[in-house]
Design goal:
By secondary structure, the protein is mainly alpha-helical. The chain has 20 helices and 14 strands. The protein folds into 4 domains: 163 residues, HUPs (Rossmann fold); 163 residues, Glutamyl-tRNA Synthetase, domain 3, CATH 3.90.800; 47 residues, Helicase, Ruva Protein, domain 3 (Orthogonal Bundle); 101 residues, Arc Repressor Mutant, subunit A. It has a 3-stranded parallel sheet with strand order 1-2-3. Strand 1, helix 1 and strand 2 form a beta-alpha-beta unit. The protein is elongated. The structure holds one RNA strand.
Length: 506
RNA sequence: GGCGAGUUCGUCUAGUUGGCCCAGGACGUCAGGUUUUCAUCCUGAAGAUCAGGAGUUCGAAUCUCCUACUCGCUACCA
């Protein structure tokens, strides 16, 4: 049997990072088994449809480099892949279930059901539409046949509910947790077909997974309670059920509970792959891409949240992940998202990238600042400072002085490193640098060191004050490399400017 | 409330059939080293009585039972 898996999001908003991980595991599993990875859009709830969500999902996967073999936007032999476009297809399946005694028509209104629930709540009980209560409700089980026909024909609103056989143990075997048993009398008669003519998840999902020949259902653990229900449904249709793999949840970094959109805003990390503007609320949520993460880093980090290769290896490319992935190494417990670890992964990936690969990102940052400089110069700067970056966006913070002379000088550093007479000492260094024609870094270094020794100067004092003049702070890469990149003329200009600004302020 | 699932350092986790685990790695933390500085990098340290209890066993993180806690589900949402 071919391995066919699907990622089936609802276009109700941006793709949550937990959803991305679910998709990733599906992808890895498919590729590992030379199978097919397909994208199906589950837009059966018209009330929750959000404009732009589907396009967002497609773009997010494009950025991440996860490609679908089949589905929305790609096509394939099992289309259409948008459930709203498959609408007409579901009703006959629901009706088949009614004919076979696995389902029934129900005419109860939302108000009536609400009232029942309220009533039960008052008695500290829960109302459930099930084997115990269905005979007291308005449905094709309790109404005379001609009344049912009349109602259906007159266009009364109705839903189709699944009818569980009474008191049967349902066994569900899943790939992560093994066997789970539940008794059917505990389950409620889920609506399969809604009064608006759309199927619910519980029908559409089963029908589509069957029609699309899905072999493995890898989805979030929040679906675990529905597994017995779905298994029963496959049985009702007489179909073979796919294998289930309920993935542990992604938890918020502090406290407990599912990672939610709000946690990102609150704790300062993205919960979405791409930035998202909510068309309704007008709110903007940050994305990994815009926050300066590299897609491979996000993939690697996500892969390890709930799975591991069984050894100590942590840095893995997509191909390596595919090679090493296996469902039985997926953990059972939820994993807390860690910003520190995410940061570390990103740093490692930036380190691995060449200046050529990094160049487009940083050239864009510079262009946005209105700076255009030679590509080779920018690449030299990249090679020098990439090891100091956690995020692509740190570039300006760490390297701005290579493009714009500092106008402010860190007071703390000044206090420690800039004493009386410092200006004159720097001018002396300037003339040494200027005298070296053509400029040579090693030669300059040796000459300056000799000068410091000969005049019994304090090396830390001199070099750090020069650094402050050039950079604005007492931080940064090796000083003579900075001088070399900046050029001696610019060094002299910056020293003079620093002397002017600093000694005027003293 | 009901049902289900989960529970190893602060966090992610290793720990396949009980002994090589008084529990290993990584992130983070701390301390040294490297550096004119900061960051990187290198070295090292602290950090889990394996949720708790009771059993089985010569021997349990690994098996059994009980308890606790946490999470998930409990819609004509997915």
């Amino acid at each position: 049997m071919n391995t066919r898996v699907r990622f089936a999001p609802s276009p109700t908003g941006p793709l949550h990072i937990g959803g991305v991980r679910t998709a990733l595991y599906n992808y890895l599993f498919a590729k590992k088994n030379n199978g097919t990875f397909l994208l199906r859009i589950e837009d059966t709830d018209q009330t929750r449809f959000v404009e732009g969500a589907e396009a967002y999902i497609v773009e997010a996967f494009k950025w991440l480099g996860l490609t679908f073999d089949e589905g929305v936007g790609i096509g394939g032999a099992h289309g259409p892949y948008r459930q709203s476009e498959r609408k007409a297809l579901y009703k006959p399946y629901a009706e088949q279930l009614v004919r076979d005694g696995w389902a029934y028509y129900a005419f109860d209104t939302a108000e009536e059901l609400d009232a029942k629930r309220k009533e039960a709540e008052a008695e500290k009980k829960t109302f459930q539409y099930d084997a115990n209560t269905r005979m007291g409700m308005v449905n094709s089980l309790t109404l005379p046949a001609e009344e049912v026909t009349r109602r259906l024909e007159s266009g009364d609103h109705y839903v189709i509910r699944f009818k569980y056989p009474d008191n049967v143990d349902i066994h569900v075997h899943d790939l992560i947790r093994g066997e789970v048993v539940i008794n059917s009398s505990l389950l409620d008669d889920k609506v399969l077909y809604k009064s608006d003519g759309m199927p619910t998840y519980h029908l559409a999902n089963i029908v589509d997974d069957h029609l699309m020949e899905i072999s493995h259902v890898i989805r979030g653990e929040e679906w675990l309670p529905f597994a017995p229900l779905h298994v029963m449904r496959y049985k009702a249709f007489g179909w073979d059920a796919p294998q289930f793999a309920p993935l542990p949840l992604l938890l918020k970094p502090d406290g407990n509970g599912k990672l939610s959109k709000r946690d990102g805003d609150r704790l300062g990390f993205p919960v979405f792959p791409l930035q998202w503007h909510d068309p309704k609320s007008g709110e903007t949520s940050s994305g990994y891409r815009e926050s300066g993460y590299l897609p491979d880093a996000v993939i690697n980090m996500l892969a390890l949240l709930g799975w591991n290769p069984g050894n100590d290896q942590e840095m893995m490319t997509l191909d390596e992940l595919i090679e090493l992935f296996s469902i039985d190494k997926i953990s059972k417990a939820g994993a807390k998202f860690s910003l520190d670890k995410a940061k570390w992964f990103n740093h490692e990936y930036i380190l691995q990238k060449s200046a050529d690969e990094l160049y487009p990102h940083f050239a864009k940052i510079l262009a946005d600042k209105g700076i255009s400089t030679e590509e080779s110069y920018i690449k030299s700067v990249i090679d020098l400072i990439k090891e100091r970056l956690n995020f692509l966006g740190d570039f300006w913070d760490q390297a701005s002085y290579f493009f714009v002379a500092p106008t402010e000088y860190d007071p703390q550093a000044l206090k420690k490193r800039w004493k009386e007479g410092t200006g004159e000492k720097l001018r002396a260094i300037d003339s040494i640098l200027t005298s070296i024609q053509p400029f040579d870094k090693m030669q300059a270094h040796d000459a300056v060191m000799k000068h410091i020794q000969d005049n019994e100067l304090n090396m830390g004092q001199v070099l750090n004050s020069l650094r402050i003049a050039l950079v604005g702070t007492a931080k940064g890469p090796e000083l003579f490399t900075i001088i070399e990149l900046l050029g001696v003329d610019e060094v002299v200009r910056r020293v003079e400017r620093a002397i002017g600004v600093i000694e005027a302020g003293q």
